[in-house]
Design goal:
The structure is a single chain. By secondary structure, the chain is α+β, with helices and mostly antiparallel strands. The chain is built from ten helices and 21 strands. 32% of the residues lie in helices and 24% in strands. The strands form four sheets. It has an eight-stranded antiparallel β-sheet, with helices on both faces. The chain has a six-stranded mixed β-sheet with strand order 3-4-5-9-10-13, sandwiched between helices.
Length: 446
Amino acid sequence: MKKRILAAVVLLVPLAVRAAAPAGPRQVSADEKRQAVAELATTLRARYAIGDTAETVAKAIEDRLARGGYDALTDAQAFADAIEADLRAVTRDRHMRFGVAPPPEPTPAPGAPTAPGTTSAADAERTAWLARMRSGNYGLPRAEVLPGNVGYLEVRRFQPPDLAGDTIAAAIAYLANCDAVIVDLRNCRGGSAHVMPMFTGYFLARPTSLYDMVFRGDSFTERFWSAAWLPGKRLAEVPMYILTSSYTFSGAEALAYRFKVLKRATIVGETTGGGANAGGILDVAPGFRVWMPMGRPVDRTTGTNWEGTGVEPDIRTSAREALAAGHAEAIKVLKGRAATEEEKARLDFALERAGGRHHPPSLGAQDLERLAGAYGPYRVWVEGDQLRVQRADEEPYLLVPLGRTVFASETDDPVRVEIACTPDGRPQRLLFTDRDGSREESPRSP
């Protein structure tokens, strides 16, 4: 019984095995179903990551076949869907997938000429895959410095290090001067396990065990450690926050789980999806394939992993609110470490600015126009649906709202503008806080 591994040793949401199925429906005979179940059961017993479960799930599909449970399914995809449902019902393993394999590529006759510019389906698929990775910036769509000098890095997928390494190093270099860092895994379903030593190494001061990947069927254990050397600076000492959601899965959970155990990061958000096992795609004759977990990660500290349970957050909040909560917590921690009153005041302003950023007030054109006018040496006006302020002949500031009557400079300048109003909403005076913390109050001109 020959099998072909198409992808292995990845902590990754399984490849969509259905996506490669033939375009038209394919019928499956009773003999083909018996062959597929027999081969799949043998593969499960030999290779599935957890031995006891492997025997249970193999017997379950064999028993259903013997009872005639698949007899009515003559469409290959419907049969594959039923097998997948049974695999998942028994294993509770969200990595497990079963589907119809793509048709084999035709083999050219010996000596037959090849048309110029033609490529195989496999080459075309890889080219498209590489293009998708590049268009997604190799899984790192956003790096930003937030108020309070808090770095933010969004990770959508952990791509292989030979492709994503330069992008990861560049993103860390961009954030290297931040005082805290947030890694956003709320929309990350996993990725290549082999990039984890590099990625985690940027947040750890020394080589550290990540997990041991135990392959039962191969009697082999692969040990993952953070990298000892990396180009550029590290963010190994700054406070770290990892954002999670119930969608966070697999390799993304590996990072959250280990960094929580190490107390290296505070987890903010929702309990993650609970998929730990790693594996790849195996052919199942005749004409099917399975994405089967073959490796089980084992944390050296806990002796277990997050399979079926997920990673519990330290600060529980909705996925939508996780960034706001993590950012606020980072600023509060930095304020607690601040050595001067000036630094504390700067961080108070950063916290207010962060609140306005994550929960912007709803202000229409009329709300802004109501605040416009002259306030002593200050002129306030609306231009391009944005409030602006200027003192005498100095450069004007473009403002962003922190509240209905509180604004800040659109840039990182610690400039704050508050317009005090009467109970019925009529502007009375402007309070301007400059970069150096000095305040000036000016009444509204008649």
